[in-house]
Design goal:
- The complex is a heterodimer of chains A (512) and B (312).
- Chain A has helices at 2-38, 40-45, 67-81, 92-105, 117-122, 133-136, 138-143, 146-150, 177-183, 196-206, 223-226, 258-272, 287-292, 307-318, 334-338, 351-363, 365-373, 425-437, 454-472, 478-491, 494-511, and strands at 50-57, 83-90, 110-112, 153-154, 157-158, 161-162, 170-176, 211-214, 230-231, 242-245, 252-253, 296-303, 322-326, 341-344, 381-382, 388-389.
- With 512 residues, chain A is of the alpha+beta class.
- Chain A has a domain at 2-166 and 337-425: Periplasmic binding protein-like II (D-Maltodextrin-Binding Protein, domain 2).
- With 312 residues, chain B is an all-alpha fold.
- Chain B is flat.
- Helix content of chain B is 71%, strand content 0%.
- Classes of the chains: A alpha+beta (512), B mainly alpha (312).
- The interface between A and B is large, with 49 and 41 residues.
Chain lengths: 512, 312
C-alpha cells in the first residue's frame, strides 16, 4: 500500500511537472512561431543574438500581441547591440507579483521598481551593475548628475538606473475654473493650503450643495504633500515614518512635526464646516471620478509638470475645465529620484545585453518611442511638429499596441515624442530646469536599508493605515486621535525605526 | 500459505471493487496533491531570509525571525481575538440560521415555492465580496447612504458616520455574513434532512407528536452528526477569516480596525508594503498550525463525548 501511495505521488508529481514544462514551452513556442511568420531569417538568427525580456507596467490596455513591436525594436537592436528583446507589458495590479515570480524563475532580465527599490535590493532581486556601467551604458551615465545615481546605490554599489523624467513634484490645487470665475474668486492669493479656508467658505456659501474639497484617493486629502521641505528618507508619502525637514539632520517623526498638527487641525476644521467630503477617509472613488460628478470644487495632489499643462491634461478626465495653483514648492529628495528605477534582474543570464538595451531606452529615440507608441502607421502617426497622434478614427483604447501612459516609467522622458497637444518645448525646458534647480534635501543620495527593522515596519505600517487617513481627512477629533496614534506607533516599535534611520544617516553623513 | 493466498485474493478483490471509485476520485486527489501538498514545500520559506538570487533552497535560514512581526504590537491580541470571536459567532449563529432555513424549506415540501426560495437564498452566495461591499456602502455611506438619508431622517435622528464608528461593525459584519452564507450552508442540512427515513416521522405522528415536537425530537437529533462534521471543519479554519468580508466590506477604513482587523487582513496590510515572501509564509504557517491543533483537540473532545460522530 505504501509503495502504491509513493508511486501515485510520483506519478502525480511527474504529471504536474509535465504540465508545467508544457505550458512554459508553449509560451516560448508561440512567441517563437510569431517571429517565424515574420521572417525566416529572424528565426534562424534567433541563436546568434542575446535574448532579453523586459517587464514593465502599462497603464493602457495590455496588448494581446507584442511580436510586431518586438520585431520593429529588434531591427534596431540587432544591428546596434546584437540583442533581441521581448516585451512583457503588465497591468499595474499584477505587476509586483508577476515580476517577483518571474525573477525567481529567471524569466525576465529587466524590470522597474515602483517605489520599492530598497526592498528589491534587500531581497536580492537586483543585479549589481556598478562595473558594467562604463562599458555597457556609458551614454546613459552621462545623462545623470552624480548625485542622482547615488539614490540607486547601496554601500557604494549601483543596483538600478532611475527613470529620467521630471522628478520634482509640486503640491497643487486643481479647481473648477467655471466656479472660480462665477464667484470671482481670487485664486492668486492662495500660497499655501491655509489660504484655502476663505476660498472654500465662499464656494460653500454660494453652492451649499457642493463640497469644496475632494480627496485624491482614499484617505488622501493632500495633507501629506503640503508640509514643505520634507525628505521622506525612503518612505512613501502615503505612509511616512521618520523624516527630515529642511536643513536639520535629525530624524524626526513625521507626526510630531508642528506642521503636521497644524494642517491636521486645519482639515478637521474643514470637516466640521463640510468643506471636505465626509467620506474622504473611506471612499474608493478617485479624484477625477468625484470631480466629474459635479459635486466638488477642487482637489489637491502633486505633479511634476507646469501648472497650466497639468490643469489642461487633467481637465478631460474631470469633465470640467480645471485651473491649477501651487500650494508650495517642489523639493527633491532621494525617493523623488529613485521611485521608478530600471533594474536588471539578479537571475538574468544576459546582464550585459540587458544593460546595453537599457542604455538605448535612455539614448535612442526610436527605441524608446517604439516601446511607447508601437508601429508607425498602425499604432500612431507622427505630426510635423514632432508630436504623435493616434491614426485617424483610432484612440488609445483601439490601437493594437500603445503604452503611452508609461511615459513616466520607461527610460528617458526627455527624448520621448510628446502626444499631440502636450509637452511643448517650453514645458520640457521648465521640467528639465526644475530637475536641476529645485531645492533638494541635504540628505540627497542617502538610501535607507530597512532590512534590519522589517518587523517593526510591518507593524508600524498597519498602525499608520489605521490612523492616518482619518486624521488627514479630518474625520476624527484631531487631538485625541493624534495622541492615540502616537502611542500606538510607540507600541509597534516606531522608535526602533527612527533610531535605525538616524544611525544610518549619521554614518552616511560621516562618509560624505 | 493458503491463508496468505486467500489474503492476496481478498486484497485484489478489494481493489477490483474500489478501482472504479478511485478512478472517479482521481481528479480530486490529483487536485489536492497539486494544490495543497506540493506547495507545502514552501513551508521552508517561513524560516528563511529569502533571496531571489539564491532561490528557495540556498537562501539562508533565519530561525523564527519571520514570525516576530505577528506579535510585534498589542494588535496581535486584538486581531486574534477578532478572528476567533467572529468565527465562533459565525459557526454558532450560522449553523442555527442554516438549520432553521433548511427545516422551513423542507416543510414547504416539493413545490415551486421551495425552488424559488432556495435560489433566492443562494443568490447572495454567488456574488463577489466587492459587489457586496458596495451594496453595503449604498446603505451606510454617510453622504448619500440609504440608512442616513431615509431611516435616520424618518426617526429624526442624527446622521451616523458608519465607517468611522467601530461599535456597530460586529453586528454589521455578522448580518452581512449571514445574508451571504446562510442560504448556501442550509443546502447541506436540507440534504441531510431529506435523507432522514420518512417512517420515523410517521411513527412520531402516530404517537401524537406535533410538528414542533417532530422538529425538536426527530429532525434535530438526527442532524447531529452533520452538525458535528460541519462544525469540526469550520473549527479547523477558526484562525482564518473570510478576507473579503473583513477587508472589502468595511472599505478598508482605518478607524474600524479595532473591530474589523483579523489575522488575514493584518498580514495583508503589513506585507502589501513590504512584499516579503518569508513573512507571508510565516503567517500562513502560524495560522495553519493553530488550526491543526484546534481541529485535533476538538475531534478528541468529540470522540470522548460521542465516539461515533468523531471525524477521525
Amino acid at each position: 500500500m505504501f509503495k502504491k501511495a509513493i508511486s501515485t505521488i510520483l506519478a502525480a508529481a511527474m504529471t504536474f511537472s509535465l504540465v508545467a514544462c508544457g505550458s512554459s514551452d508553449g509560451g516560448a513556442q508561440s512567441a517563437g512561431s510569431d517571429n517565424d511568420t515574420k521572417t525566416e531569417a529572424a528565426a534562424t538568427a534567433d541563436g546568434d543574438y542575446d535574448q532579453i525580456t523586459y517587464a514593465f507596467v502599462t497603464f493602457n490596455t495590455v496588448p494581446d500581441d507584442t511580436s510586431d513591436v518586438e520585431e520593429a525594436l529588434n531591427e534596431i537592436t540587432r544591428e546596434k547591440i546584437g540583442v533581441e528583446v521581448h516585451l512583457m507589458p503588465l497591468s499595474i495590479a499584477d505587476y509586483t507579483q508577476q515580476v517577483s515570480l518571474a525573477v525567481q524563475n529567471g524569466e525576465i532580465d529587466i524590470f522597474h521598481t515602483l517605489g520599492d527599490l530598497g526592498n528589491s535590493i534587500a531581497s536580492d532581486m537586483c543585479y549589481d551593475i556598478t562595473d558594467m556601467m562604463d562599458t555597457d551604458a556609458k551614454e546613459t551615465k552621462e545623462l545623470f548628475e552624480e548625485e542622482w545615481l547615488k539614490t540607486t546605490m547601496q554601500d557604494g554599489r549601483l543596483y538600478a538606473i532611475p527613470t529620467l523624467k521630471p522628478f520634482a513634484l509640486q503640491p497643487m490645487l486643481l479647481y473648477r475654473k467655471d466656479i472660480a470665475e462665477e464667484l470671482g474668486l481670487n485664486m492668486d492669493t492662495v500660497k499655501t493650503a491655509k489660504d484655502l479656508t476663505d476660498i472654500f467658505a465662499q464656494v460653500k456659501e454660494a453652492h451649499p450643495e457642493m463640497t469644496p474639497l475632494a480627496p485624491v484617493s482614499q484617505g488622501d486629502s493632500g495633507l501629506t504633500r503640503w508640509i514643505p521641505n520634507i525628505d521622506w528618507l525612503g518612505d512613501s508619502f502615503a505612509s511616512p515614518t521618520g523624516v527630515l525637514q529642511g536643513e536639520d539632520m535629525t530624524v524626526t517623526s513625521y507626526y510630531d512635526l508642528t506642521d503636521f498638527e497644524d494642517y491636521a487641525n486645519l482639515v478637521r476644521d474643514w470637516y466640521s464646516n463640510d468643506y471636505i467630503m465626509k467620506d474622504a477617509a473611506t471612499t474608493t472613488s478617485a479624484a477625477a471620478e468625484l470631480m466629474s460628478s459635479g459635486n466638488y470644487f477642487a482637489y489637491s495632489a502633486s505633479y511634476s509638470y507646469p501648472l497650466e499643462d497639468t490643469a489642461a491634461s487633467l481637465s478631460a478626465p474631470s469633465g470640467y475645465e480645471l485651473g491649477a495653483i501651487a500650494l508650495g514648492d517642489a523639493y527633491l529628495d532621494t525617493s523623488s529620484i529613485n521611485a521608478v528605477a530600471q533594474v536588471i534582474a539578479s537571475t538574468s543570464e544576459n546582464p550585459d545585453a540587458a544593460l546595453k538595451f537599457l542604455n538605448l531606452t535612455y539614448t535612442d529615440a526610436d527605441v524608446i518611442n517604439t516601446m511607447l507608441y508601437g508601429i508607425e502607421g498602425r499604432d500612431y502617426t507622427k505630426n510635423e511638429d514632432g508630436t504623435v497622434s493616434y491614426p485617424e478614427g483610432q484612440d488609445a483604447a483601439t490601437v493594437p499596441y500603445t503604452a503611452q501612459l508609461s511615459c513616466g516609467v520607461l527610460g528617458n522622458f526627455f527624448i520621448q515624442w510628446p502626444l499631440e497637444g502636450s509637452g511643448s518645448e517650453e514645458s520640457l525646458k521648465w521640467e528639465d530646469e526644475q530637475n536641476h534647480n529645485a531645492p533638494s534635501s541635504p540628505a540627497m543620495g542617502f538610501t535607507f536599508d530597512a532590512s534590519g527593522v522589517q518587523t517593526q515596519y510591518t507593524a508600524v505600517s498597519n498602525v499608520i493605515q489605521q490612523y492616518l487617513p482619518g486624521i488627514a481627512c479630518g474625520s476624527v477629533e484631531t487631538e485625541s486621535a493624534l495622541a492615540e496614534f502616537r502611542q500606538a506607533l510607540k507600541d509597534a516599535g516606531y522608535d526602533d525605526i527612527l533610531a535605525e534611520k538616524q544611525k544610518q544617516l549619521d554614518a552616511w553623513v560621516a562618509a560624505q | 500459505m493458503s491463508e496468505n493466498k486467500s489474503n492476496i485474493k481478498k486484497v485484489k478483490n478489494k481493489y477490483a471493487k474500489s478501482g472504479p471509485l478511485l478512478l472517479i476520485a482521481a481528479p480530486g486527489i490529483l487536485y489536492l496533491i497539486i494544490n495543497n501538498y506540493i506547495p507545502m514545500f514552501g513551508i521552508f520559506l517561513a524560516f528563511k531570509n529569502f533571496s531571489y538570487k539564491k532561490g528557495i533552497w540556498k537562501s539562508p535560514w533565519n530561525g523564527f525571525q519571520n514570525f516576530k512581526f505577528l506579535f510585534q504590537t498589542k494588535d496581535a491580541i486584538i486581531m486574534t481575538r477578532n478572528t476567533i470571536l467572529y468565527n465562533l459567532a459565525f459557526i454558532v449563529i450560522g449553523t442555527v440560521f442554516a438549520i432553521t432555513i433548511a427545516i422551513f424549506l423542507n416543510a414547504l415540501g416539493d413545490s415551486i415555492r421551495t425552488k424559488f426560495f432556495q435560489s433566492a437564498l443562494l443568490l447572495p452566495n454567488l456574488m463577489s465580496w466587492v459587489i457586496i461591499a458596495y451594496m453595503v456602502y449604498a446603505f451606510l455611506n454617510s453622504d448619500s447612504g440609504f440608512i442616513n438619508n431615509t431611516i435616520m431622517k424618518a426617526l429624526g435622528k442624527e446622521d451616523i458616520a458608519w465607517y468611522m464608528e467601530r461599535g456597530y461593525w460586529p453586528f454589521i459584519l455578522t448580518i452581512v455574513y449571514l445574508w451571504k452564507n446562510a442560504g448556501y450552508m442550509s443546502i447541506i442540512y436540507l440534504a441531510a434532512i431529506a435523507g432522514i427515513d420518512k417512517s420515523v416521522y410517521e411513527a412520531a405522528s402516530l404517537d401524537g407528536a406535533t410538528k414542533l415536537q417532530q422538529i425538536f425530537r426527530v429532525t434535530l437529533p438526527l442532524l447531529k452528526p452533520t452538525v458535528i462534521i460541519m462544525t469540526l471543519m469550520a473549527v479547523g479554519r477558526i484562525f482564518f477569516s473570510d478576507f473579503g468580508l473583513f477587508y472589502q466590506v468595511p472599505m478598508n477604513s482605518g478607524a474600524l480596525y479595532a473591530t474589523t482587523q483579523t489575522i488575514d487582513t493584518y498580514v495583508y496590510r503589513g506585507l502589501m508594503e513590504l512584499n516579503d515572501v518569508g513573512m507571508s509564509a510565516a503567517a500562513g504557517l502560524f495560522q495553519s498550525l493553530l488550526g491543526f491543533i484546534i481541529v485535533v483537540s476538538a475531534n478528541a473532545f468529540v470522540r470522548k463525548v460521542d465516539n461515533d460522530n468523531a471525524l477521525f
